[in-house]
Amino acid sequence: MDAERITEKLNILADAAKYDVSCSSSGSKRKNENKGLGNASNGICHSYTEDGRCVSLLKILLTNHCIFDCAYCVSRKSNDIKRAAFTVQEVVDLTINFYRRNYIEGLFLSSGIFKDADYTMERLVRIAKKLRTEHKFNGYIHLKSIPGASDELMNEAGLYADRLSVNLEMPTEAGLKLLAPDKNQADMIKPMGYLKDAIILHKEEKKLFKKAPIFAPAGQSTQVIIGATPENDSEVLQSANYFYKNFNLKRVYYSGYVPVLADSRLPTLNTAVPMVRENRLYQADWLMRFYGFKVNEIVNTQQPHLDLDIDPKLGWAIRNMQAFPVDVNKADLQMILRVPGVGLLSAQKIVSARKFGKLNWDHLKKIGVAINRAKYFIVCQSNEFERRDLTGNNIKQFILATSQSKYIKSTQSQLSLF
Amino acid sequence: MTTLLYDGSFEGLLTAVFEVYEHKMDAVNLVKTGKYTTAMFEQVITIVTDEARATRVLKGLKTKLSPMGVQRLYAAHLAEMDDEDNNLIGFIRYAFNSDKNIEEDYGNRFVVRVSEMVRMVRREKHRMEAFVRFQKLKDETFYASVEPDFNVLPLLIRHFKSRYADQRWIIYDLKRNYGLYYDLHDTQYITLDFAESNKPSDLMTAFSEEEGIYQHLWKNYFNSVNIKSRKNTKLHIRHIPKRYWKHLTEKI
């Protein structure tokens, strides 16, 4: 092995892959039944980079040669950068050796598009196949579905990979047309649609026959870039919601645009990464997936943007003061989940604990409720509760005055352009 | 107040519970033998761990708690946290004194504390599953040293055994001076004598040739995936507290 050459390739191809934010290694039930190497189950973050993001998978491009010229991408055809390509064996060796040392949960393999979609996809699938069949590798494999790849290849990919993903890149088709003239959304949606049906089909088969092969057990995900085009939060979340509903996606990732290229269509190079906005979008995403919120409750035509100062659940609560106060000793779980400062676990604990006796502030604090936010919205077994007739805006001011945002230094307001 | 001294084992804890009920004690202060400092005017009883009695208590506990609940209690005890023995025995007594299962009574201070302890232990276990860094030795064994906050090695067996079924490995707890060794069939507890080589890092000479290359590649990879314009040191350190760095290949 030529260590120097491999190091150089790894640097180039890891650097080019890092803007893909998906890092999840959970959701697959692949077991180590063949006395081989590895298993995939709960998902483990093995390390964290200095920007605080988790390192769970060996995330690399097979190559950064690309025939496309997407404005937001470092690997675009017209960008003058060093190009490199791994061989199939090199990727396999790196994956196995990193995995054996407990550096990673598995492989996340993406690629620039060389020649055409099928040619590229075929290479990706070949690596996954080799790992699974020749090396008895049961770790996590996440493959990119190359837009426009054939159904046959997608089917084979599903048999070896745990998760597949196509990046929508831009929340709307107009945004995509502007920045990635070579791509079209229909090409991206086609493999997604095929996989959705194939996953359902294989699940049904698995119910009937225990020996039926597993097919992309960790499902599909996608990513949209935030802040490169002028879409508002409402458009972003509506589009995410559409894909959750219609394609059974496991995750939509939101990637704050990191200015890497000078282009008149893009924000200038010294623009800050919209990290707060990204964080708020993830919070909103969680509300949709775990807290029973409908997308229209979080953003709508009156509220096209998420409030950057406060989290979207608090935002919803102060717009809907008629729903409060909630009595934590009586209200049903769905309503307790809507109280700002109460998380999923706390809500479940409250519902379990109140069977044994009524809960007071002290109990709630011990359970883990953020009292400083929740106190305006709940009553419990105590004479102390918020008696003033506060407006939503009052509450927001009180909460902001008593808590310090971890983003205080980077607070930036988002302007409505239209 | 009676002070009970016990040996720190789970059986010892259960024996102490037996004594409490046998002698109808009310307020007790349970302390591990080594941690006890003598106080005046105190009644002190030393608990002699008794397998039969411990088994009886465990059997009774199983009728009061779910299998998961017993496991959680075991994990909380295993952690060997200081000054928590009274919370453990408080939890057990509360379980025995109630008619129904109290595992989810988060209004009770013992239940809340044990659930916090379990969370701390589980987090440490999960961290070890993430932060163990194996180094390949010449004889193809993969070696890792760790220094976990709590005694979590026994909780790691299942995970590492099923994951690395086809390689021999050692995970060694330097703080508590014992380790796990998997020989391709089973795991066993071992103690290593580093006296001759002084430090485990002197094992360097025993590393396989390719080990250095892969460590180098991993460090490079780790640096390449960082996005400088998103630097967030606070978050970084919250995720990987500094005390773990010395065993992390990418942070050395």
Automatic annotation (TrEMBL), chain A:
Keyword list, A-Z: Iron, Iron-sulfur, Metal-binding, S-adenosyl-L-methionine
Required cofactor(s): [4Fe-4S] cluster
Note the superkingdom of the native organism: Bacteria
User: What Gene Ontology molecular-function terms does this entry list?
Assistant: catalytic activity; iron-sulfur cluster binding; metal ion binding
The record, for Pfam families, names: Radical_SAM (PF04055)
Where in the numbering of this chain does the Radical SAM core domain appear?
61-198
InterPro entries in UniProt: Aldolase_TIM, DNA_rSAM_put, Endo/Exo/Phosphatase_dom_1, rSAM, rSAM_sf, RuvA_2-like
Question: What is the protein name stated in its UniProt record?
Answer: DNA modification/repair radical SAM protein
Native organism is Mucilaginibacter glaciei
UniProtKB/TrEMBL annotation, chain B:
Pfam families, per database record: DUF4130
The record places domain DUF4130 at 85-250
- What InterPro entries does the annotation carry? DNA_repair_put, DUF4130
Q: Give the protein's recorded name.
A: TIGR03915 family putative DNA repair protein
Write down the species.
Answer: Mucilaginibacter glaciei
